[in-house]
Specification:
Elements (H helix, E strand, L loop, with lengths): L1 E2 L5 E5 L9 E5 H15 L6 E4 L6 H14 L3 E3 L7 H4 L5 E5 L3 H6 L2 H5 L4 E6 L5 H10 L3 E9 L3 E7 L5 E3 L4 E2 L6 E6 L15 E9 L4 E7 L3 E4 L2 E4 H11 L4 E9 L3 E9 L3 H12 L9 E5 L8
Helix pairs in contact: 1-2
């Protein structure tokens, strides 16, 4: 995240894993309004500190690591997936923990320290909830609450749900676009971001497939555009496959989304070739992918069509 010369606007960028990174501008008033919504959703019963696994350069991380703690006047510590956490987790009685999918497994190794807390709020944003999240919630029992946020860099918060299952409820200031039914989710909100060269949009299409249940709730069915979110980073499967095919011509390559017990969702690369040289080149091309686009596995088959989607 970078602050523009105009302090009334903040700039966030998409990761670039689904195409060229896109710059999105968000007014400071929009960020503050979203922080206030999040306080009502996640901190209404009071918190005495924030532990955030979400990097503040992204909108979710900026809100949870900077804007929300500032408004609550509580300390925030930035957590990593590899750093020891036991003493950090134990410092607060009523922590709010902003997680990415892989953080649930990290937190599960701190159960004795978490169990000493009076109240824990786990906040998870815009990715498929991994089984590890529900297991942690069950192990912590009634002292813990799980709040999931649905949104993106472009839209900000759209909806939320609690408990890890069920349907989604729109944020207070958000509504379905006119004519919304079953199909791609389109919303209207005063917090929509805008591109530097364009005015703020009135409606945003999200690429998510939903069924509207009533004027405030919807059921999520998946994504329409072959995206997965790996620890909160959107990855375009067709783009990864095209990049690998360009690096190793002559090999049939596809990417398949798959559930993952730690990340919620991930993907594998399927390739058809028996040529040892091409297999080695493909393995090298996979290793050269950006960290966010690394697949769970590269699966190699003889050219029989088994890798077709």
């Amino acid at each position: 995240m970078t602050v523009r010369q105009d302090p009334a606007e903040l700039e966030f960028a998409t990761s670039g894993s689904t195409g060229e990174p896109q710059r999105w501008l968000r007014g400071a008033a929009q960020v503050e309004a979203e922080a206030e919504l999040l306080i009502r959703l996640c901190a209404a019963d009071g918190v005495d500190g924030v532990l955030s696994f979400a990097p503040p350069r992204h909108l979710y991380g900026h809100l949870m690591s900077l804007a929300l703690p500032r408004r609550l006047e509580v300390p925030c510590l930035q957590a990593g997936l590899t750093a020891p956490l036991a003493r950090t987790v134990a410092r607060w009685r009523r922590p709010l923990i902003a997680v990415v999918p892989a953080a649930f497994a990290v937190l599960s190794r701190c159960l004795p320290e978490l169990a000493a807390a009076e109240r824990i709020v786990l906040v998870h944003s815009s990715a498929v909830l991994p089984p590890a999240g529900l297991r942690l919630l069950a192990e912590l029992g009634e002292r813990a609450a799980l709040i999931e946020l649905f949104g993106s860099t472009e839209t900000g918060l759209i909806a939320s749900r609690t408990g890890g299952t069920g349907d989604w409820t729109l944020a207070e200031d958000t509504r379905f676009a006119s004519g919304q039914g079953a199909g791609e989710l389109c919303v209207e909100s005063p917090r929509l971001a805008h591109r530097p060269d364009l005015p703020p949009p009135s409606v945003a299409a999200t690429g998510d497939l939903v069924t509207v249940l009533d004027e405030r709730t919807f059921r999520w069915h998946g994504r329409s555009n072959r995206l997965v979110k790996v620890n909160g980073v959107r990855v375009g499967l067709d783009r990864v496959a095209a990049r690998l095919a360009e690096a190793v011509p002559g090999v049939a390559i596809s990417c398949r989304a798959e559930p993952d017990p730690l990340r919620g969702e991930w993907f594998t690369v399927h390739a058809e070739t028996e040529d040892p040289r091409l297999r080695a080149e493909l393995a090298a091309a996979v290793r050269a992918l950006p960290a966010a686009e690394q697949p769970r596995a590269l699966l190699l088959f003889p050219p029989t069509g088994r890798s077709d989607d």
